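Before relying on records like the one below, remember that each one covers exactly one chain. Contacts with other chains, cofactors or solvent are not represented anywhere in the record.
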Amino acid sequence: MIRYIVPGFCLFHTRLTRRLDRVSWVIVNPLAILLLSYVFTDLSLPFLLVGFPLGFLCFLSIYETGYIENDVVTVKGEDRPTVRFSREEAMRIEESYWPLIAWKVAIALLLLMSLTLWVRYGGEAARVGLFVGCLVAARFFFRIHNSIRNRWNILTYLGLSVLKYLSLPLLFGGEGRTLELVLLTVTMFPLVRTVEHATKPLYRFPGLRRFVGNFDTFRVKYYCILFALAWTAALLWGFQPDVPFLLLYGYFLAFRIGALVAVRLLRYQRTSHTAYEDPVEP
């Protein structure tokens, strides 16, 4: 079980099992969050490039405790669970569940201490206290998310997604521009991903499922609209305030177009889960 202590192993082992899935995750998660942090920070780039991995791995270590809880504990109460561990592996993890959680929290604390020391002796300011608040909130949201299975999960999913993308930009910047940062963070990925999540049959929104349709096509349309709105706002009120929006929306739009091309022309098949499939009628 030692390998599950390493931040990122649980994510890659249970959710990102294919190489292209991992490449996609790198683009839409750490690289996107790093870009968002960079456009909102006043800190030097070397300081950010050292501090970012520490903060990212710290958050990931805490976040993965929610994954483990879901995959080992929560699935026992589900009618149609998404099974990510073999029976033997799940049994071994369950036997060492609390020591494993304790180790992951300890790793997160060690990374947090390293981050704090880097902030203290790096000669630049960062909002470590706010970041710690995000860590606590993420674990709280994940606990609620794993304890219920109804439409409230849509809100807990949105909260988790927002915290995942917002915690590090808040750590390294955004002071005086918090509203702008939150708006961009929510719309650049968490909102569209939550809408997709809400199409699960569990939530019984058939109209939404029909509206969204194919995820890849829906994402391209979504980012086209956002980029067009940001470009229009830039033309009307000046480009300076809208640069972060144009940059991040353009980043995601370019990636989603590339992903759509890969799916259509290269016949790439995305990983699917039973939770997004229609339940079998009795």
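DSSP finds 13 helices and no strands in the chain.
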